[in-house]
Structures are given as structure tokens and as C-alpha cells.
Design brief:
This protein is α/β, with parallel strands linked by helices. It has 2 domains: 12-113 and 235-289, Bordetella uptake gene, domain 1 (D-Maltodextrin-Binding Protein, domain 2), CATH 3.40.190; 115-209, Periplasmic binding protein-like II (D-Maltodextrin-Binding Protein, domain 2, 3-Layer(aba) Sandwich). The protein has helices at residues 2-15, 35-50, 66-74, 84-87, 101-104, 127-136, 149-160, 175-184, 246-259, 262-267, 277-289, and strands at residues 24-28, 55-59, 78-83, 106-121, 139-143, 167-171, 189-193, 204-209, 234-242. Helix 2 links the parallel strand 1 (24-28) and strand 2 (55-59).
């Protein structure tokens, strides 16, 4: 027994094994290829190139982020890349929402609000041609499940604010599938965060940014307020942790600040927040509870 214990301790000493050698899982509650996934891949590079920590990105989409949230609640030593939309889904899915996530999720960092963009097939020159077409026929609008950002944008454009006269919602499990259909011309429009992979596709054109002013990321795309549509819609991203040690958290924060300069933040449609993660989260919790 003593020899066995000595062998085990020798293994630990010779291999340099510590608890930090286990990779940290970044849970992304959406499928690969969307705006949240793109940000997660940058976070992965930021941590691994600027610290001795190892991370693995795990996409677990479904039910507007609820499946990913449940996985995070059950898993130790993990990071969770959340959006405002899925956190506030507790009001939409009260029976299936894992409410304990509010108590378990400890904030590490927040990326400031990123506006939604209305992307359209290039058959539309601008928002006004889209509106005119909607008077003559249904506009095919890609959207995921209720509670998702794309569904909220569909509701804004077609129901609540009635910017488009006639719409037909086409449901998708992931933004990646909607992106492909928009690219192929099977959809008229799809709305996503500014950092989506829709940019650069020759058959897709950003028509409008849902904000009060233009974005430096898309300087040639008019804002909704500029077009006389006084509606703004954005979404923040927050990085939360569960079961990480204090020194690991410090390494992650330092890595993010070292990696995300102005250009990289612009690439993912965000800017660095001056407010602390704890204060930001406390303010958001007050909004959720009121």
C-alpha cells in the first residue's frame, strides 16, 4: 500500500500534474457558425495564447439556449457564454428554464451590446425596396424558436412594429442553417448580431443596423433611426464561470484584456466594457427582477 502511494506521488511530481491540466469547457448554447460561436472561438484563442490554461469549446444548442444552460448548471470547471436573450428567457419558458443558473453563474467578463442587423438577399437594394415588396407578397423571414434573438427580430419587423406588411416565418434550429438558405436565395431576410458570418457572402447584403447610430464595424450600413425607424435592438454577451479557482479566473481576465484590442473587438461587433462584470451583472439582475 505504501509502495502504491509512493508511486502515485512520484507520478504527480515527475509529470507536474496539477488540477489546472484539465481543460476548461466553454459551453456555447448555440450551434456552430453563429455570432456567439464566433466570439467563443476568439475567447478560446485569447485564453490559450495568453495563459497556461487549456479550453475546449462545446456547442450545445437547442430550446433557445436552455439546453446549454442546463449543461452548465450540471458541469463543474466550465465557462458559459451567455447572451441577454437566453438569460431573459425565464419569462418566456418558466416551466423549463433552469432558474438556478442565476445563482450559480458567476460573471467573469462582459462584452458590450452588439446591435442586430437585418441581412437580406441582394435582390433588395435597401430597406425601402424590402418594405415595398412586402406590400405585394409575403417576405420569407428566417427565425429560430421563440425566445431567440432572430425570433424577437421577426416579431419586431412583422408583428409588434409592423415594419413589413406581409411576412411568413421560416423556422430553423440554428442560425447556420438560416444563413445557408439566405445565401442560396431561399430566404428574403434573416436578422443576426453584427458579428455573424453572413458578411462577405456575395448574395447577402446588410440593409439596416437596429441602433440609433451607425456602427464602425459596418460604416456604410444605415441605422434604423437614420432610416426613420425609431427602434433599436441589441444583445450583450457575458462570460460566466462555475467551479474555477481564483487564479484561473485572474488568468482568463488578463488573457481577454490582452487579446481583445479595439480591432478584434470590432471584428466581433463589440467594444470593451468599462464597468466591472459584477456591477454589470447586478444591474442586469435588477432589470430582470423588475
Amino acid at each position: 500500500m505504501i509502495n502504491l502511494l509512493f508511486s502515485f506521488l512520484s507520478f504527480i511530481f515527475l509529470t507536474g500534474f496539477t488540477w489546472t491540466t484539465n481543460p476548461i469547457t466553454i459551453i456555447v448554447p448555440f450551434s456552430a457558425g453563429g455570432a456567439t460561436d464566433i466570439l467563443a472561438r476568439h475567447i478560446e484563442v485569447a485564453i490559450e495564447t495568453n495563459s497556461d490554461l487549456s479550453v475546449v469549446v462545446f456547442n450545445q444548442g437547442g430550446a433557445s439556449g436552455i439546453i446549454g444552460m442546463r449543461s452548465f448548471v450540471q458541469k463543474n470547471r466550465s465557462l458559459f457564454l451567455a447572451t441577454e436573450t437566453i438569460i431573459t428567457n425565464k419569462n418566456i419558458f418558466p416551466d423549463s428554464y433552469p432558474n438556478e443558473i442565476i445563482d450559480m453563474a458567476l460573471p467573469i467578463h462582459f462584452f458590450t451590446n452588439s446591435p442586430y442587423v437585418v441581412y437580406a438577399n441582394t435582390r433588395f437594394n435597401d430597406v425601402f425596396s424590402l418594405i415595398e415588396t412586402s406590400k405585394a407578397r409575403d417576405i420569407l423571414v428566417g427565425a429560430a424558436a421563440p425566445g431567440s434573438g432572430s425570433f424577437t427580430m421577426y416579431d419586431i419587423l412583422c408583428n409588434k412594429n409592423k415594419i413589413l406588411n406581409n411576412c411568413r416565418r421560416v423556422s430553423y434550429k440554428s442560425g447556420g442553417d438560416a444563413t445557408l438558405d439566405l445565401y442560396a436565395g431561399r430566404l428574403d431576410i434573416f436578422s443576426s448580431l453584427i458579428s455573424t458570418n453572413l458578411l462577405g457572402m456575395e448574395t447577402v447584403k446588410p440593409l439596416m443596423i437596429m441602433s440609433k447610430k451607425r456602427s464602425s464595424f459596418l460604416p456604410n450600413v444605415p441605422s434604423s433611426y437614420e432610416l426613420g425607424i425609431q427602434i433599436e435592438k441589441d444583445n450583450w454577451h457575458g462570460l460566466f464561470h462555475k467551479g474555477l479557482h481564483k487564479d484561473e479566473i485572474e488568468k482568463i481576465i488578463k488573457s481577454l484584456h490582452k487579446y481583445f484590442d479595439d480591432e478584434k473587438l470590432k471584428l466581433v461587433g463589440h467594444s470593451m466594457s468599462d464597468i466591472s462584470a459584477k456591477q454589470f451583472w447586478n444591474d442586469k439582475l435588477n432589470e430582470f427582477n423588475n
